[in-house]
Amino acid sequence: MTSTRLVDRLRARVRALTGRGARAVKPARHPGDFHGVVHPLYSPELDGSADPGEIVWTWVPYEEDPSRGKDRPVLVVGRDGRWLLGLLLTSKDHTLDAADEARHGRRWLDIGAGAWDARRRPSQVRLDRVLRLDADAVRREGAIIDRAVFERIAAAL
């Protein structure tokens, strides 16, 4: 095997293990956002399956057009039957436009930095939009969030 082929195979293996370079899997159909009462449950296990208390990367549809969206980090907070329930994360600081966000009904909570962001940027979690996620569409597990941070998020829901 040539050194170029070996390097290519190693790079492919690293991408497979880390999820880097993997394409987001768009679910066959969007189940719609969750509008009931969330019963947060902290039960993370880095076992290859998404669990409450973990930040995962998955396809998130845009609110204004669910046929479009993008790959985003999401905190799994519970379940609704076969669906995972999650809250999207962002590294954008929404305290700078807090009045506009509130006017549109969006609520954000600072959760600090963590392993889910490669550059360790501070993050915020969105509290007013609970996503239903297909577990098969979760691309990779990103990190386990600290229990105290999870409980602070759960109390704010």
UniProtKB/TrEMBL annotation:
<dbReference type="InterPro" id="IPR003477">
    <property type="entry name" value="PemK-like"/>
</dbReference>
<protein>
    <submittedName>
        <fullName>Type II toxin-antitoxin system PemK/MazF family toxin</fullName>
    </submittedName>
</protein>
<dbReference type="GO" id="GO:0003677">
    <property type="term" value="F:DNA binding"/>
</dbReference>
<dbReference type="Pfam" id="PF02452">
    <property type="entry name" value="PemK_toxin"/>
</dbReference>
